[in-house]
Design brief:
This protein is 51% helix and 8% strand. The chain is mainly α. The chain folds into 2 domains: 8-204 and 320-350, HUPs (Rossmann fold, 3-Layer(aba) Sandwich); 225-317, Tyrosyl-Transfer RNA Synthetase (Orthogonal Bundle). Helix 1 (20-33) links the parallel strand 1 and strand 2 (39-43). Helix 10 (263-276) packs across helix 11. The longest helix is centred in the last third of the chain and has 30 residues, at 321-350. It is globular and about 65 Å long. The chain starts with 7 loop residues before the first strand and ends with a helix.
Length: 354
């Protein structure tokens, strides 16, 4: 191998209802990337027990994410769609990465600080260590690119740090066994087994904010259902939520620079831009100078037009769980084959008997 084969990997956690932010920030990117890339998309169910151990219907939530993938346009025949717990190699590599990563690296993760809150001593070890599992999710397939929201950039940087430390620590073992690729990190030449993963971040709405507070990310865990548009919401509910979305009294500006300091306005314009595959400036060229009383109905109509077909197909798929389970089972078999090839080589590099 003279270079790493391009591969896209990403996953979505099965916790709570999927919302517009998940669709625009992740799933829509997944769909677009599959046209020109080899893609693996995962329902990361192992991650779902880090913050909440017991779920009332985890199987249903896993199926719901898979249904959203397929309803949105991901092709599970051309690419791989599976649930993480069906491939034990994720957890095996995560343990190795727990031994590669440093405690200080984990303690600096802002999401751990946010989720653990003030009572950090009572947080689960899984919550602290889950960035190692995230790194394993990606690198067990030696993926080269990951579509992520900008709030996940820190975790992807950690993935690169873990890969680099493994590559440097085991460089002679990697070379001696005929694995790896010669790369340059900074100015240092390295014979690497794991690739330096690159994030795929972009689009007019890489981070969708709450409809009730434009300074907070749209979230499944927000106690107010009015803060988000769920993918399973019907047309009337979408219209109601956008009509009630927080705004300011000023008219829309004619250029994107005029949105600075107006988080709610920027969020709604960004959502419109993302749903219509346009830039914010293009949207404001049409709506600049108008009040939100005119813009909100247009945004609501657009959201319903884009989301209703996905919602309908998700409902149809969720009515046939055997079909979803078969897709996940087949995807798991294909993913395990790829992951086991990596793990056989990693075990050999480290020196485990097998």
């Amino acid at each position: 191998m003279t270079e790493f084969k391009p591969l896209v990997f990403s996953g979505v956690q099965p916790t709570g209802n999927l919302h517009l932010g998940n669709y625009l920030g992740a799933i829509r990117k997944f769909v677009a990337l599959q046209d020109n890339n080899d893609c693996i998309y995962c329902v990361v169910d192992l991650h779902s027990i880090t913050a909440q151990l017991v779920h009332e219907d985890l199987r249903g939530q896993i199926r719901s994410i898979a249904a959203a993938f397929i309803a949105s346009g991901i092709d599970p025949e051309k690419h791989i769609v599976f649930n993480q717990s069906a491939v034990p190699q994720h957890a095996e590599l995560a343990w190795i990465f727990n031994c590669v990563a440093r405690i200080g690296w984990m303690n600096r993760m802002t999401q751990f600080k946010d989720k653990a809150g003030k009572d950090r001593e009572n947080a689960s070890l899984g919550l602290l260590a889950y960035p190692s599992l995230m790194a394993a999710d990606i690198l067990v397939y030696r993926a080269t690119h990951v579509p992520v929201g900008d709030d996940q950039k820190q975790h992807l940087e950690l993935t690169r740090d873990i890969a680099q430390k493994f590559n440097i620590d085991f460089m002679e073992h990697i070379r001696a066994r005929g694995y790896g690729v010669d790369i340059v990190v900074g100015e240092e030449p390295i014979h690497a087994y794991f690739p330096p993963v690159e994030p795929l971040i972009g689009g007019p709405a890489p981070r969708v904010m709450s409809l009730r507070d434009g300074t907070k990310k749209m979230s499944k865990s927000d106690p107010s259902d009015l803060s988000r548009i769920n993918l399973m919401d019907d047309a009337d509910t979408i219209l109601k939520k956008i009509r009630k979305a927080k705004t300011d009294p000023d008219a829309l500006p004619s250029e994107a620079d005029g949105l600075k300091g107006r988080p709610e306005a920027e969020n709604l314009v960004g959502i419109y831009a993302a749903l219509s595959d346009r830039s914010k400036d293009e949207v404001l060229a049409e709506f600049g100078g108008q009040q939100f009383s005119a813009f909100k109905p247009a945004l609501a109509d657009l959201a319903v037009t884009v989301l209703s077909p996905i919602t309908g197909e998700m409902r149809r798929l969720m009515g046939d769980t055997a079909h979803i389970d078969a897709i996940l089972r087949k995807g798991g078999e294909r993913a395990r084959e790829r992951a086991e090839k990596t793990m056989r080589e990693v075990r050999e590099i480290i020196g485990f008997l097998q």
